[in-house]
Amino acid sequence: ASDVYKRQLLERHVEPPLFVSDSCTACGACVTLGCPALGRDETGRALIDPALCIGCGHCTQYCRFDAIVKE
């Protein structure tokens, strides 16, 4: 394979991290995704680690309450 193709495979496109708004109901649907950036705080609400979030948006599709949004 060419060097350009190899470089494209290694590059990762990262969007700004997402965050959880006040409309989170702590239902836990997003956490079932298995994303390493998603967790829960002491109240059960979703929590996103901005150091791990690549902004892919998969979690936004799981949230019925539109609580996960772009900053």
Tell how many strands the DSSP assignment holds. 4
Overall pLDDT: 89
| Number of contiguous helices | 2
H/E series: HEEEHE
**Beta-strand fraction estimate:** 15-25%
State the distance separating the first and last CA atoms.
38 Å
Q: Helicity level, as a percent range?
A: 10-25%
Radius of gyration: 15 Å
Q: Can you summarize the main beta sheet?
A: 2 strands, antiparallel
Strand arrangement within the widest β-sheet reads 1-4
**Ranges with pLDDT <50 over ≥5 residues?**
none
Taken from the alpha-carbon principal axes, the silhouette is elongated
Task: Supply the helix-strand structural class.
Answer: alpha+beta
Give a quick precis of the structure.
The chain has helices at residues 3-10, 58-62, and strands at 18-20, 38-40, 46-48, 68-70.
Plain-language structure description:
This protein is of the alpha+beta class and 71 residues long. 18% of the residues lie in helices and 17% in strands. The chain is built from two helices and four strands. The protein has helices at residues 3-10, 58-62; strands spanning 18-20, 38-40, 46-48, 68-70. It has a two-stranded antiparallel ribbon with strand order 1-4. The protein has a two-stranded antiparallel ribbon with strand order 2-3. The longest helix is centred in the N-terminal third of the chain and has 8 residues, at 3-10. It is elongated, with a radius of gyration of 15 Å. The model has no long low-confidence stretch (mean pLDDT 89).
